[in-house]
Amino acid sequence: MEFRYTNWDPKKHGQMMLPFDQLFELFQQLLEHTAGDANEALNWMTQLDNKYNISDDTMGIGDFIEELKNRGYIQENDLGTPMMTARMERTIRSRSLEEIFRQLRKGGRGNHKTPFAGPGDERLPETRNWKFGDDVSLLDVTGTLANSLKRSGINEWNLSQDDFQVYETDFRTSMATVLMIDLSHSMVLYGEDRITPARKTAMALSELILTRYPKDTLDIVAFGNEAWEVSIKDLPYLNVGPYYTNTRAGLQRARDILRRRKNRNKQIFMITDGKPSCHIEYGRMYRNAFGLDRRIVNKVLDEAVVCRREGIAITTFMIARDPYLQKFVRELTTANQGRAYFASLDNLGEFLFEDYVRNRKKRMR
Known about the structure:
- This protein is of the alpha/beta class.
- It has three domains: 16-84; 116-171, no CATH class; 174-358, Rossmann fold, CATH 3.40.50.
- Helices cover 40% and strands 20% of the residues.
- Strands 8-7-6-9-12-13 form a six-stranded mixed β-sheet, with helices on both faces. A three-stranded antiparallel β-sheet has the order 3-5-4.
- β12 (312-318), α10 and β13 form a beta-alpha-beta unit.
- α8 runs parallel beside α9 (294-309).
- Mean pLDDT is 82; it is low at 10-15, 103-121 and 360-365.
């Protein structure tokens, strides 16, 4: 066996993860599964260290906790319980975005392409005749001079209004999105954790829009027995409750939000396991968790039709494999003329990202 020694390369050395970075990566993963409970995540890390020796002599778990405090990632409340700081919340949102969307192409900042040419901020190679009101910064100087020379000749060169050409531009538009997240108890039934990938995808989408599409708006609606708005900073803490699934209330709340938005394009993204099981009528809750109750389903379909009439497309991301529940999603999609994706827990983020950025037109048949 032959060994070959070379000079020390500081660049290669920098690629090695330091003890803090290794523990911090694990800490972020655990925060995703504990719904932002830093105390529980650190308890899990201590148990893992006792069993698998994940720390070393250079940095024990106690040292790691102190370093988290020094770097502003956690702080203690009045009872001495560690909690995430705003910096930690931003960090795990950013991590979710990078992890889910790492392989996808970068999009333009704050814009969505459409098939139409018109006023915009990305110049196309095609040109057209100048019209009154066109931005002079879009002037095609070469084309304009060529037109002038063809018309007047080089000896008597002059410019006429008909000589001017300008570049075409992409028409750009902003998007108002409401992301609905199902927090009903069924999202954790049968030993399948559906809420963690849903929460992670919500954090990634919020970070995507905040950092790359600042002209767009994003509102979050959680729904269980009823529906309520959730701020972006509270996304890491979303968790299921002992709730039924009031899909109708979620759609109503989303539609009310979008009615106040001035964006021309409006859409609802809904992450759910697909089974509405309650709604409010005559001031009381009507509920049935056994199968699909037509009395409940029809109210949801009515709301989908109202959304369609108001120009609001619903894209459903179905994360359950039950064909019976998928049948309901197909009915909802047909009523709204929207889209649906039957995603696994592993590829939920990719489906949602592609639909948002690329405006895919995968319609139900």
